[in-house]
Design brief:
Elements: H1 2-25, H2 30-33, H3 36-71, H4 74-87
Helix pairs in contact: 1-3, 3-4
Length: about 90
Amino acid sequence: MNYCLIVVSMMTLAFISIDRFVHIVYPLQYREIITIARIRITIVWTWIQGAIIGKYLVVLCIVLGRITSGIIGYRSDIRMKIFCSNHL
């Protein structure tokens, strides 16, 4: 969940920057370029990407935790547990 919110925040800031850029560079075409439909698509896309990346990292932690528990040494196992516990 933590990564989902981080990704959504970063993408939101990026899209706000793009919106401001379009408004400054193309002031007369702004309403044609930035439409309500494109805004809705952007919002949905942002949350989908956040959810995908958040779920991917959770699965990655689970898989890597299982792999490293028996193969890699004790210190690597501790690092993986700390990483996964902080990011789940």
